Amino acid sequence: ERLAREIHDTLAQGFTSIVMHLEAAEQAMETNPQRLRHHLDKARDTARHSLEQARHVVQDLRPDLLAQHALPDAIGRAAARWSEESGIAVTAVTTGDILPLHPDLDVTLLRAVQEALANVRKHAQAQHVAITLSYMGDMVALDVQDDGVGLAGAAPSPFAGGYGLTAMRQRVAQLGGTVELESEPGAGTTVAVAIPVSQEP
Questions:
Q1: Long-range contact list for 21-29, CB < 8 A, 24+ apart?
Q2: pTM value?
Q3: Residue ranges of domains in the chain
Q4: In CATH, what number does 88-201 get?
């Protein structure tokens, strides 16, 4: 089951991005050669990145970003890459005193960011996303807030179910945490994750 979640969080999202770029390239084929090249380049880059992710999943199921960077930097880099691919602006900030966390907690929070961003791209019609990672002593919190259409305005709802949200909830629950969704029509959606810092890194 853990491997299935990792495949969803890496390969499935990468393939989704590749398909979107190829579809956009097809639309630009006859009218905008420069745009065509842009989307083909992005599809190629995403395919290469997904291949590296797949190799790392096979190695030890730990995201390569976390093998190279601390959690706040890993989240910032993941957000910047997503923003470049999606064209949606992202800000990522960290508050509180940064503490080393258990590796499972790091992975869970990074995957939550990636899943929330994937849903924003597919459904929210947003212009901006704000990511806040908060270290609060015995608790770490993650908020991903978009300015999109909100749950009632999305078709289909980005959080109507599906393996992505289920996997996120399962990951967080295994660490004693919670996932909450806050949304109003036309006022965007916030994914709020809170996990106790009860395990030694």
A1: 21/46, 21/85
A2: 0.67
A3: 1-61, 88-201
A4: 3.30.565.10
